Amino acid sequence: MRRFLSALWAKLSNRPLALCDSGDVDGITSAALFLRKYSNGIVVLAAPSEVNRSWWIKRLSWTFVADLPCPGKVLIRADHHRTNKPCAKVEFYDPEAPCSALMAMKALGLENDTVANGLVKVAIETDTANITSKEAENLDLAVRFASYPEKIYIVRNLAINGLQALSNAKIRNLVERGYRAKKLMLEIADKIPIKEIINIYSPIDLGISYRQLTIELQHRGAKMVNVLLRLSRRTFRYYCGADKNSPYDCTQVATKLGGGGHKYASGAQYKSPLLNPGWGVEAFINVLKAYLNIDRLEVLELSRNSIRVITY
């Protein structure tokens, strides 16, 4: 409701309206670039799955969309996902670009803006899973665990202050929260044996970044990591990461589960039928078996205190 009312207010007050990905630094920085260009603009954040199923997102006309599937009525869109089909009147779309924020900077005419370039630099680091700067690490940790109002707060501060926003006391607290979650993620990663392909099922949310877990396991030697998180009785979230020098293609799995993304990083969110809540796990297992062309699949089931191996 908060997002719908924000979008409605933008329409009633004739202000520029943007829709950007809520899930990562790339989407957040793209939103900040929009507000840097249009200080009177209003930003709505959403996940790709929400764009695909939300009636009001599809009904509205958007000034700018970034890092998301095209909802239909869009003036300008900036994106780099192969699985997102262009549809805007003006497309800044390049599937070879390292992040959507780079395309957003071009779309908004901010190439000569020093602050904008700083934001795009960290977006490139985070979206290519090659974080080398403290600024990129801190912003990534702040965004991963922020609530919706906290993400909007980050967007507005980045738009005005650029990376200097990381010195803001409230954002520093979000970074510290992220570091605590990262510590827990590393403890879980230490318990997982490294193989070429690692498949994980988490029946409860352990309070970590599961995308961060896929990246960590890849850094330790895995070539493909598939993670299924149960968000609720019927709702599941899939994360996939694959090494760029491997033959694996995450989109081949993610698209079968209703999602998309990149060859080496994709995801999906989907629901089980009302009368068969366990179908979500079955779908994950069956799609992976078909993609990998195997009859038996080994899955690590995570709990708060242990990891057990289940063969399907």
Automatic annotation (TrEMBL):
<protein>
    <submittedName>
        <fullName>Phosphoesterase DHHA1</fullName>
    </submittedName>
</protein>
<dbReference type="InterPro" id="IPR038763">
    <property type="entry name" value="DHH_sf"/>
</dbReference>
<dbReference type="InterPro" id="IPR051319">
    <property type="entry name" value="Oligoribo/pAp-PDE_c-di-AMP_PDE"/>
</dbReference>
